[in-house]
Amino acid sequence: MHKSFKRYLPSALTAIALLSTVLLGNNIAFADSLGDSIAELQHGWAKAYYLTPEPQKISAFENLATKSHQIEIANPGRAEPLVWEAIVLSSYAKFEGGLGALNKVKAARDLLVRAEKIQPDVLGGSIYTSLGSLYYKVPHWPISFGDKDKAREYLVKAIKINPNGIDANYFYGDFLLEQGDYTQAKIYLEKAMSASPRPGREDADQGRRIEVSQLLEKLKLHS
């Protein structure tokens, strides 16, 4: 090895090591920033969905939709922002109603399909829980894309990814109840009720458990 090269080699290695540290630090900061943004959306959604008075819900979800879209644009190639923008739009559509709601649920479906291509099992199967709920809640063609068979397919996928999750079991239980399968609906709703708490999602869990309790009460009418 040439002497002059040997002389500069330690400095070059040091520079590479420092550059690697900076790049790694930037990646960690990027990940933490996205995580903080998603957590902010999650808490904002729980507040808007469960705690905000009915007359103010549309305004709350309009603001969340704007924020979720900004996060999605700022993080290209990531599945999490796509999923949460879809969740926000779906909830916005629920409270808005009308033709505007149909456009929002279609946009939500398209976001979830994009997220599936990036990371199918992201957020504990939330893609399939959300797709499943959309397909059994929205009207059938020619009004919209509702399809009970597709709904079941997606909800079963969600259960396979997250068999003990509160959302996966809640939505599948709700779907089964709607289909008149009361025995199976009770099984999944009871699993939802006994699901382990999700760290950082206490507000959403509390609201979801109330919804599960309401469905279990509804089931008693069919026992």
pLDDT average, as an integer? 88
What's the CATH first level of the largest domain? Mainly Alpha
- Gap between N and C termini, in Å? 85 Å
Low-confidence blocks of residues: 2-31
CATH architecture assignment of the largest domain = Alpha Horseshoe
Radius of gyration: 22 Å
Classified in CATH, the superfamily of the largest domain is TRAP transporter T-component
Gross morphology is globular
Q: What is the makeup of the main sheet?
A: none
Question: Helix fraction?
Answer: over 70%
- Class by helix and strand content? mainly alpha
Order of helices and strands: HHHHHHHHH
The CATH topology of the largest domain is Serine Threonine Protein Phosphatase 5, Tetratricopeptide repeat
Q: Treating each run of at least 4 consecutive H or I residues as one helix, how many helices?
A: 9
Q: Which range does the strand content fall in? A: under 5%
Kindly give the count of domains: 2
Total strand segments: 0
TPR repeats: 166-199
Organism: Sulfuriferula nivalis
Protein name: Tetratricopeptide repeat protein
InterPro entries: TPR-like_helical_dom_sf, TPR_rpt
